[in-house]
Amino acid sequence: MDKNSLAPHFTTALATRAMQVETILQKLLDERLRAGEIARPERLMAAMRYGVLNGGKRLRPFLVMETAALFGANEEAALRVAAALESIHCYSLVHDDLPAMDDDDLRRGQPTLHKAFDEAAAILAGDSLLTYAFDIIASEETELDAATRLELVLSLARAAGPGGMAGGQALDLMAEEQNPDEAGIITLQAMKTGALIRFACESGAIIGGATRQERERLAEFGSAIGLAFQLADDLLDVTSDAAHLGKAAGKDAAAGKATLVALHGIDWTRNQLAGLVAQAEELLSPFGDKAEILKQAAHFIANRES
Amino acid sequence: MDKNSLAPHFTTALATRAMQVETILQKLLDERLRAGEIARPERLMAAMRYGVLNGGKRLRPFLVMETAALFGANEEAALRVAAALESIHCYSLVHDDLPAMDDDDLRRGQPTLHKAFDEAAAILAGDSLLTYAFDIIASEETELDAATRLELVLSLARAAGPGGMAGGQALDLMAEEQNPDEAGIITLQAMKTGALIRFACESGAIIGGATRQERERLAEFGSAIGLAFQLADDLLDVTSDAAHLGKAAGKDAAAGKATLVALHGIDWTRNQLAGLVAQAEELLSPFGDKAEILKQAAHFIANRES
Lengths: 306, 306
Prior knowledge:
- Two copies of one chain form a homodimer.
- Chain A has helices at 3-36, 42-52, 59-70, 75-96, 113-116, 119-138, 146-160, 165-178, 182-207, 212-239, 242-245, 251-254, 260-264, 266-284, 292-303; strands spanning 106-107, 110-111.
- By secondary structure, the first copy, chain A, is mainly alpha-helical.
- In chain A, strand 1 (106-107) and strand 2 form a beta hairpin.
- The radius of gyration of chain A is 19 Å and the shape is globular.
- The relative contact order of chain A is 0.12.
């Protein structure tokens, strides 16, 4: 498959999904919050909106919606799960950017939340986005039966928690001094960035009431493109510049951080990426043409330039 | 009711519940986490344990368990919900203590988490405790049907999120410059400390399959003792010292923070506390003798000295 000939279709689909998720996030962060609360903590809500409505690619929501579509799932339900996942992803960015963590001033070319507001607002907005994600999924407005919503809550909590993303972030903070070997780096990345991408793909199968086997296949697809995502990210860190990335570049090398790119070089990494894309396509083969857009997503993730 | 004659019974019951919840928390933070994760982020888990296993009174877990007992609920299920709630409560303390928030060095006479570890560990451990709480409740090991677990997830997310505790904390940070009036202070406190205590009492009714009316009654009981809890806290801040409290005293006054005690004085506050205890007892009256320990809890909360 030649990525360039397919790119326009994929880019349009990604932008369409991003618009859908942006709309529901705006609704969820504005109207819906009015009902539950006693008073409106306006500044907190402004900080939450700033942390979420920032023009991201919305890749994880895209994966939720397109994997759900494979199974003819309720689109409104998928959209809400997608919004919840994006809320979790954005909370993690807000907290990761804090001075005590990665200490970043820029995110997608804009001041990070603690720069635009302050550190307390960034901590609380992150906490709130994380908590609110479970509210969104558990709510009756997410038109799925109780057992399915509960399954999604559990899977998302595990993907985001100490055995998933948060645990991976903790391992990453240790990596500079502990210098993990190849297996250690792969594990760290599977937790830090892989777990949420895996959840994105698996959740579509859960929402769509897929068989256990199909669900496992989608989860593996998520793991493959999750690893590809991280490899591409590490590659960009050494080959790109800040203007292109919208955030600081060359940070890994400067921090002496162990990455697979640092360990094996650029050519090896490009080969690995090609292998992961092939593996991702193979995992989708039982779904035939319906999975075409997801195959393009795998290519996009492996070859992205920002 | 004379609190002194009843205190021994209550104190023993509180200590017993605390021991039960400590045991399950230790189990949940050690054994259970092994299963889900790929690698053990040891330092993160040590930080989570430090943040949770710190000898707290475990008042919220006590309320979950004793309200659940009113309805003859499954005790193991109540214990797990209690542990999840305590995990959320402790996350909020860890984040509130951070330099960018309340900047506290001491908590229950011990160094706060960011002092014992570092700020990054405190941020991540807080995030992890928050996320893990939803994992605990949603898990099949919490022996409740899917609809009940989902109801608990939703109620807890709302109590802890931007319309509840986190929102209250945000309003509190604004309070120094915005100087809220009496209604503003009550709202802020109902969100910041009241929401979780209300959830603690309401969750017992949910776990026990209570009627809608009973559930509402328990929630109101929770609101009354939640407000009493905060009034007693504000009172302690002006009447106690750090050695007694295990944390800094006189902080509110030093920060010029508006509290009902500052607004109305000590005598007014003591009267209010007596009124809230009477209201709490009245709300429990339909449950007769079974609710005796909860009435004692109301007295304890209003009259506590640390």
